User: Fold this.
Amino acid sequence: MTGAATDKVFAGSIPKIYETYLVPLIFQPYADDLARQLASRSAQRVLEIAAGTGVVTRALASALPAGSEIIATDLNQAMLDQAAALGTSRPVEWRQADAMQLPFADAAFDAVVCQFGAMFFPDKPKAFAEARRVLRTGGVFLFNVWDRIEENGFADAVTDALADVFADDPPRFMARTPHGYHDKAAIARDVAQGGFRAAAEIVTVTHRSRAESPRIVAVAYCQGTPLRNEIESRDASRLGAATDAAEQEIGRRYGSGAVDAPIQAHLAIVHA
Assistant:
């Protein structure tokens, strides 16, 4: 498969490594942000799309009132299996579903939440239209996307390192997909094309990404994301060498001990 074809494939050992290393590295602070945003609103029935291994789901389960209902979905069953194995502080419903064709009735939810999933949607206005369809009037759609890769230090370092390892055909997953949907005007336009009459409020949110060593960061990105699929499609025997190169570049930029780099994303708040 081509790189673009494997961008949505989270399988094999990826879900476990993703949860163990990548979630605390870059996803947890933004999950907490989304949960706080939603907790301040009255939402009795909440749909999460592209839930991954459940970092937002867990935050929602803790932040929302006990009487609220949470349904968490993802395209990849392996990611949901990892999420379900970890569990939540109270029951939620896990369900495999494609954001492009949600298996829910019109106006079924008070809120739809999506953390770092919109970048993967092949037709973003269509996915946003599905979110609008399942929202009741007055409901809210909250989603976030990564800013450009240059504003996200570790992702940028890993991408540059792999360009040296595979000089003839550099793996570009991080720049192409996770960090490829950062233009605020394009996001607002896609939301409008999805049928939302209210303009999207888009704010930029910066956090810090921290790890005990460059090795943790290198393993997180090279082995816990679909970047691994790109590496192995070029030469599966070089996954270790690619991870080593990423570790060395992170160490060169941020030091050999505990490391700390900026991460930056956009949060979109859209009312139905």
In short: DSSP finds eleven helices and seven strands in the chain. Residues 3-271 form a domain with the Rossmann fold fold (CATH 3.40.50.150). The mean pLDDT is 95. The CA atoms of residues 138 and 144 lie 20 Å apart.
